[in-house]
Amino acid sequence: METYQILGLIGSLLLIIVLIIPISFFYYHYSMMGYYGGMMGFGMFYGGFFFLFLPILAFILGIIGSLISDRTIAGVLLIIASIFSLTAMFFGIIPFILLLIAGIMALTYKKT
């Protein structure tokens, strides 16, 4: 595997971790009054379905961009995935940087 592919896979996997942590905290609530489930805090944290859909799409594009051997298409997919990963709030800055660097490396470095 080349360097851009490894960076793309690491960025995509970090993006999923960034998504799982807030979901686990906000999906089920525990309180002194008992246990109840719901999406109350989750909707407030992410701003609705739209901001959950784009990071999942960024994960899919990042994985596909990392597994494609054509460097031009992979670079474009990784850069698009990095832009979509910004919707994962302030926790998504590390996957954004990794996916952006992977996309730039795929587009600029020539295979020798």
UniProtKB/TrEMBL annotation:
Membrane-spanning segments: 6-30, 42-68, 74-107
Domain of life: Archaea
Protein name according to UniProt: DUF4064 domain-containing protein
UniProtKB keywords: Membrane, Transmembrane, Transmembrane helix
